[in-house]
Design a protein that fits this description.
The complex is a heterodimer. Chain A is an all-alpha fold. Chain A has one domain: Helix Hairpins (Orthogonal Bundle), CATH 1.10.287.3510. Chain A is built from three helices and no strands. In chain A, helix 1 packs antiparallel against helix 2 and helix 2 packs antiparallel against helix 3. The longest helix of chain A is centred in the last third of the chain and has 31 residues. By secondary structure, chain B is mostly helical. Chain B has a single domain, classed as Four Helix Bundle (Hemerythrin (Met), subunit A). In chain B, helix 1 packs antiparallel against helix 5, helix 2 packs antiparallel against helix 3 and helix 2 runs parallel beside helix 5. Chain B is flat. Classes of the chains: A mainly alpha, B mainly alpha. At the A-B interface, helix 1, helix 2 and helix 3 of A face helix 1, helix 2, helix 3, helix 6 and helix 7 of B.
Chain lengths: ~100, ~170
């Protein structure tokens, strides 16, 4: 019973990560890109939990909680940046943010 | 139980696909929340009930609500009322509603048939064991997480404040 389900969970995590990556690369809306990052982080956590469940250890869930903490710390800062960008140049297009003229 | 796993996995993949192809931010957010709830059900079936609860509370609850707040702050103006009226059509919300109903049916089935057993591993790993390991070998990681969260708060406060004038 322990074999295929873990493998399929890993495949599911890979599929979700690929969707997140596609969304991150294809979209130019900053909010969409942030949500795609969330999808990718979540897929990584799912992989950790599948590996932890395979061996009956709690370490996978610990790693999931650390990923959760990372997401919870990253999202407010990124959303504050989005608010600042929208306040200054009135758009959410990631390609329009060229104030540094790099 | 295996059927439930594959059903939840299908719902998660479908909701994420709908998220990627959605053109409206709010619709994408709805689909993303459904996807997170489906993943929480998968975590429950994998024998990680504490992680499933965290997924619902923090991912689908707190983080997505932050996105909702920002969308509400950005979508201001007289046109938003018309937009809301147009958005409330059946064509918009039937997708996430059907997917969420599938998940509700799965949860009801689990409640009716009794407890969830460990599907994929030797045994389920409960919250007590997770807490013992978290504050045992991983206590340094907990401290580092608190160090990470404090700059998160300060950074969000500093970046999000409204400056008066100037650059």
């Amino acid at each position: 019973m322990s074999g295929p389900l873990v493998v399929h969970t890993m495949m599911l995590a890979g599929i979700l990560f690929a969707f997140g990556l596609i969304g991150f690369l294809a979209r130019r809306n900053v909010l969409f890109m942030l949500m795609s990052v969330e999808v990718m982080l979540n897929a990584a956590g799912l992989g950790f939990i599948a590996a932890g469940a395979r061996w009956g250890q709690a370490d996978g869930q610990i790693m999931f909680m650390f990923i959760l903490t990372l997401a919870a710390a990253e999202v407010p800062v990124a959303l504050a940046l989005v608010l600042q960008v929208h306040r200054r140049i009135r758009t959410l297009d990631a390609d329009a943010v060229t104030l540094m003229a790099g | 139980m295996t059927v439930l796993f594959y059903l939840s996995a299908s719902v998660a993949v479908l909701a994420t696909l709908l998220f990627v192809v959605a053109s409206n931010t709010v619709h994408a957010l709805l689909n993303l929340i459904v996807s997170f709830v489906a993943i929480a059900l998968i975590l429950l079936l994998l024998g990680a009930p504490f992680a499933a609860a965290l997924e619902i509370i923090i991912y689908a609850g707190a983080i997505m609500v932050l996105f909702v707040f920002v969308i509400m702050m950005l979508h201001m103006g007289p046109t938003s009322v018309d937009q809301e009226r147009r958005r409330l059509g059946f064509r918009i919300w039937w997708g996430p509603a059907v997917l969420a109903l599938i998940l509700v049916a799965e949860v009801g089935f689990l409640i009716v048939t009794g407890g969830v057993t460990a599907e994929s591993g030797p045994r389920p790993v409960g919250p007590k064991e997770v807490g013992l390991v978290l504050l045992g070998p991983y206590v340094l990681g907990v401290e580092l997480a608190s160090i990470l969260l404090l700059p998160g708060i300060l950074g969000a406060y500093y970046l999000g404040r409204r400056r008066r004038e100037g650059p």
